[in-house]
């Protein structure tokens, strides 16, 4: 960042007061300190507001914000505008910040996107926090103060009383209420081919348009969203984005909030992290979804570090990071946390776990998923997700239709599928036994003995096969001496036997009209 670049940034922000806010929620910046940064950003754009403020240096808890405000006070005492950048840089240099560090520091403040119209709200927030701090000191003796030290600002510790901690708590800011919170790292995790990227694109499009994610979770408002993947995913992503737009009735040409980055290099490479940060800031992105499955290495330790680096890069640029990560094995049935899948995901403050409920049938376009989500804000739940992508040969082409199902219905479905699979295994055993046993010995008791199925299960499976017509006893005329019935398996795919009637034409109903070559007449039977 140079002085001229900083000036252009201030000019751009002044010219576009409607720019959406971007929270600079880094590891060392609390929400209260964001209010400090936004206040400073406003006075850098409107220096006349500084002279009307009632704030003092004690209102600023972040060390760099404290130093910037104190330098501005010194400039005001000499009748110098607080946004005179050369003078401000000179005073920060005296305070121990070289020009390069000071420029970066001011840039970080401006990237908090303070809004001039909200200047009084920022002032009120800082005053309220300061008053709470004073009240805590007056009402509690020092010996009874409960202290909490957390890393923050340039100083190694930030000390808060319990009252201050509670007073600084702010309402949650949601991306999509009930599932994703702003400024908290998130992951979408699942085994290979569990629709992670497709679900991530659905999320991006919903957040960017202000629509509904999975048709259930409506975005709090339209956000500036970026999606990062490899360049060889261009065709798949464009196809999915087009199908989503058509299904949601969204004109893709009127969706400027969704920005795509298709990389030819590894975004997690330290050499490229700065470029990723500049891309996020340049496009003023508030949410960045990264398909980390295709952009990181496969080694456990190196991948864990790369994921943390990507998260830190996004947060430093002021965006909420959401990473798509692949689990190395099937997700345990009772998994509810990201760390239940992999310890390398312990940076995640919110998560979404995906796995298939049923094996995918190639070419069907039907996907049956189980989605479990949760987060440190207290959100959590479980849904069945049925996705219909259609088929290539469909007249309308492929589609994107999603149906959410509650836990009870998918549990009933799972039990029914398990029972059907069990029944199919029993029928397969009976079929195999009937095939190998000598035809004249294929009695019910002999089949039961040889297939190894116990009495009650065998009886139930046998009755179902009879009811379905898959087995039947041989006609008495075909056997002369056997007392117990002899059974055979009916293969519906084979041609009919000689003694089975073969229809040469379909039945004709009474009075049904039949079109002939030269006339139409009514046939009575």
UniProtKB/TrEMBL annotation:
Coiled coil: none
Gene3D superfamilies according to UniProt: DNAb Helicase, Chain A (1.10.860.10), P-loop containing nucleotide triphosphate hydrolases (3.40.50.300)
UniProt cross-references to SUPFAM superfamilies, sorted A to Z: N-terminal domain of DnaB helicase, P-loop containing nucleoside triphosphate hydrolases
A GO-annotated cellular component: primosome complex
Keywords: DNA replication, DNA-binding, Primosome
TM annotation in the entry: none
Protein name per the record: DNA helicase DnaB-like N-terminal domain-containing protein
């Amino acid at each position: 960042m140079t002085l001229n670049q900083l000036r252009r940034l201030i000019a751009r922000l002044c010219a576009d007061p409607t720019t959406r806010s971007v929270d600079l929620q880094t590891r060392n910046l609390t929400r209260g300190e964001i209010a400090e940064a936004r206040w400073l950003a406003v006075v850098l754009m409107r220096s006349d507001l500084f002279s009307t403020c009632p704030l003092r240096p004690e209102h600023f808890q972040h060390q760099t914000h404290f130093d910037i405000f104190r330098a501005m006070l010194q400039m005001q005492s000499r009748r110098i505008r607080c946004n005179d950048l050369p003078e401000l840089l000179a005073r920060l240099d005296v305070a121990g910040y070289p020009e390069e560090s000071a420029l970066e520091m001011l840039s970080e403040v401006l990237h908090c996107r303070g809004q001039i119209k909200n200047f009084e709200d920022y002032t009120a927030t800082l005053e309220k926090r300061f008053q709470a701090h004073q009240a805590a000191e007056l009402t509690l003796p020092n010996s009874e103060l409960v202290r909490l030290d957390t890393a923050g600002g340039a100083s190694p510790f930030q000390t808060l009383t319990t009252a201050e901690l509670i007073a600084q708590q702010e309402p949650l800011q949601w991306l999509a209420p009930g599932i994703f919170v702003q400024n908290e790292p998130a992951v979408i995790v699942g085994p290979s081919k569990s629709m992670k990227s497709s679900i991530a694109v659905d999320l991006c499009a919903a957040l960017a348009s202000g629509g509904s994610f999975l048709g259930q979770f409506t975005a709090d408002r339209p956000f500036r969203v970026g999606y990062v993947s490899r360049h060889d995913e261009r065709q798949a992503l464009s196809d999915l984005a087009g199908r989503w737009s058509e299904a949601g009735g969204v004109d893709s040409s009127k969706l400027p909030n969704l920005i795509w980055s298709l990389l030819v290099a590894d975004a997690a490479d330290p050499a490229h992290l700065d470029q990723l940060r500049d891309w996020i800031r340049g496009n003023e992105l508030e949410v960045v979804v990264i398909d980390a499955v295709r952009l990181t290495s496969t080694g456990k330790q190196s991948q864990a570090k790369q994921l943390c680096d990507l998260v830190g890069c996004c947060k430093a640029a002021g965006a909420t990071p959401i990473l798509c990560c692949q689990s190395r094995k099937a997700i345990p049935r009772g998994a509810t946390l990201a760390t239940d899948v992999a310890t390398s995901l312990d940076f995640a403050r919110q998560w979404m776990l995906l796995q298939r409920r049923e094996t995918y049938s190639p070419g069907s376009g039907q996907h049956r998923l189980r989605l479990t989500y949760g987060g440190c804000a207290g959100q959590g739940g479980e849904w069945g997700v049925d996705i219909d992508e259609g088929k290539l040969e469909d007249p309308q082409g492929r589609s994107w239709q999603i149906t959410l199902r509650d836990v009870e219905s998918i549990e009933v479905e799972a039990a029914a599928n398990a029972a059907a699979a069990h029944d199919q295994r029993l029928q397969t055993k009976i079929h195999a036994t009937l095939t190998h046993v000598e035809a004249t010995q294929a009695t019910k008791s002999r089949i039961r003995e040889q297939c190894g199925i116990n009495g009650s299960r065998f009886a139930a499976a046998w009755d179902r096969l009879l009811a379905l017509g898959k087995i039947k006893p041989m006609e008495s005329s075909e056997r002369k001496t056997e007392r117990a019935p002899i059974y055979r398996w009916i293969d519906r795919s084979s041609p009919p036997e000689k003694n089975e009637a073969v229809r040469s034409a379909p039945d004709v109903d009474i009075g049904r009209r039949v079109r002939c070559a030269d006339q139409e007449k009514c046939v009575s039977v």
